[in-house]
# Entry
Amino acid sequence: MIREDVPALKVEGLKKTYSNGLVALDGVSLEVGAGQFFGLLGPNGAGKTTLINSIVSLARPDSGNVKVFGKDAFAEYKEARRMIGVSPQEINLDKFLTVEESLIYHAGYYGVEKKKAKERTEELLERFALLDKRKARTSTLSGGMKRRVMFARALVHDPKILFLDEPTAGVDVELRYRLWEYVRELNRGGMTMLLTTHYLEEAEELCEEIALINGGKIAAQGTKADLKEEYGARNVEEVYLRVVGHDVA
Amino acid sequence: MTLLESAFNRSFRTLLGREILRFVRVWTQTLIPPLLTSLLYVVVFGVALGGRIREVDGVPYLQYILPGVALMSLITGAYMNTSTSVFDAKRERYIDDILISPMSDAQIALAYTLGGTLRGLIVGVGVFVVGTPFAGAGVSHPVLLLLTATTVAFTFSALGVVVGVVSARIDHVTFMTNVVIQPLAFLGGVFYSADMLPPALKLATLFNPIFYMVDAARYATLRASDTNPYPTLAIVVALAALAFAGAWWAMNRGPNLRY
# Structure
């Protein structure tokens, strides 16, 4: 596994209050080491997506600092964003584009030159078994296929860190296992992973380190083993239930 | 890298290319209907009714209305392009893929705006070319006409970006088209000279920005106008700058884009 001295992601004191007064992030700080597989767990509305969106400026934090491989995510956003791939929770494919174009145009938005974008698109279409759908408009695809295109799109500009926001929500078991296998492979190749998920089994399976977020705050953080020991838990699910306040019998 | 290279970099060119691809791909909705509608205006107002209004400012009626009719199509085409493109992208959230890319908000606003400008120009030039055999007019100042047409298309395209971002529902977009843009275009002196109006209406016309745009296009085509064309052009350029500032603001601070 490739490790670098500079952390892949460093978040310090991130605060975000919505216009209705709801505090979505209440001074969140966390560090994700380069090459790490990091899980961000928490109940609905805990602030997981707001945290990811704040890093890429879809949400505007009130205060705090974010660095991506040492680059300030706000002052040096061009450099920082080039290193980030995002696979969002909700399907958001451009309905005017075909599968192939979705990848090529996305690569273009990230400044990847056309020849390289086409080569990378070929690789990813093959990898995600989308070659026979390359000319299909994204709006005509099934849910599982759309999810595969979303993954391929997040990867086409060769990011150094991948944000996977609930990647397997609504995905069948077979695709889930294939995605797990693939993200593990990417991680072994050195790509840093930040995974948010509801499926605790997924976090147990994939993540080295976990942060639990609740009410906009990091409630617990550590390696799986440390957390289990600290909370006297047998698995991540028990840690989760104890931390978010629903103790198990 | 120079500032210019940086502003018009591959990211920007890709988004502009996507905007062009979109309206070309749905050409039966974006390019053909405005050409047909304008041709109907030319036939109804110019050929059928024009016989009763022989000349305005010493110009045959059909010749007189053609630049305005072309400009009206240009305005609608430019505005509709960006307002619907941005609104759709926002509603289905695929605009997020652009907002989180390494592009600046100004680049995003400019790429959308230039896409709409191009569609407006294609439609406007198309109407002009199709109408010219009927009207039989030439162009007195081609450079001035192109400059005016481009600036006007740019203005309404940028305005479309603002409306696309600000609108919460698709009927907000169509409301702007039907209740604001179309009436202003119709009352902007496309079919008549402001001198033909009673004083109160003439005064009201002077507050209609589209009046200045139509007037500048008419001057560039026919040398016939109600106002001095050069200050008019300055007003049009100022409006374009204002509209683009709005588009930029919309990408940066507009509701429901970044929260």
Observations:
- Residues 7-253 of chain B form one domain.
